């Protein structure tokens, strides 16, 4: 069942994206509403799957994860068993922050966060020991220019 959202819902979502730790009173005041309707709308959007898991955003560099690699993977394997093994290998590795299947010359791109190049090499060696890939290219991010989880509502 699709849930329609209106301008007030979008304002609430924008506030939650900005800071989900705000109290209902703070959100209601910012969006010019009262606490109960804001809570009901949040609950409705959570039940509909519009609002998912709430987490905390950590600073990777402050925690010693200084290297971010974008890993481009080409494979000649496209059968279901290989894909299942590949997805399992990715899901079991906490270093993989994102994984996308692509259209075009590259089959997959991974965002991998590790402490340093040596840690990336350990990740790489473990991955290729589990699944066969045709070609892997690792690109080290020199500087993160923009990173957000906020959608443009």
What can you see in these coordinates?
The protein is an alpha+beta fold. The protein folds into 2 domains: 41 residues, Arc Repressor Mutant, subunit A; 80 residues, Alpha-Beta Plaits, CATH 3.30.70.920. A 4-stranded antiparallel beta sheet has the order 2-3-1-4. A hairpin with a 6-residue loop joins β2 and β3. It contains 5 helices and 4 strands, in the order αααβαββαβ. The protein is 38% helix and 18% strand. It is elongated, with a radius of gyration of 20 Å.
Number of strands: 4
* Topology as a string of helices (H) and strands (E): HHHEHEEHE
What is the strand content? 15-25%
Instruction: Briefly note the CATH topology name of the largest domain.
Output: Alpha-Beta Plaits
Which regions have little confidence, pLDDT < 50, spanning 5+ residues? none
CATH homologous group name of the largest domain = Lrp/AsnC effector binding domain/regulation of amino acid metabolism (RAM) domain
Give the CATH architecture of the largest domain.
2-Layer Sandwich
Within the largest sheet, what's the order of strands? 2-3-1-4
Q: What CATH first level of the largest domain would be assigned?
A: Alpha Beta
Q: Please tell me the overall pLDDT.
A: 96
């Amino acid at each position: 069942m699709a849930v329609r959202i209106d301008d007030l819902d979008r304002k609430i979502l924008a506030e939650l994206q900005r800071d989900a730790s705000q109290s209902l009173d703070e959100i209601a005041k910012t969006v010019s509403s009262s606490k109960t309707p804001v809570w009901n709308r949040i609950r409705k959007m959570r039940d509909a799957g519009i609002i998912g898991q709430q987490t905390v955003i950590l600073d990777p560099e402050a925690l010693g994860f200084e290297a971010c690699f974008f890993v481009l993977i080409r494979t000649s394997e496209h059968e279901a068993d290989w894909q299942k093994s590949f997805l399992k290998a990715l899901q079991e590795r906490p270093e993989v922050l994102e994984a996308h299947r692509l259209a075009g010359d590259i089959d997959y791109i991974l965002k991998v966060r590790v402490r340093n190049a040596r840690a990336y090499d350990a990740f790489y060696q473990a991955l290729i020991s589990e699944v066969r890939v045709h070609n892997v290219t690792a690109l080290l991010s020199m500087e993160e220019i923009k990173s957000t989880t906020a959608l443009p509502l």
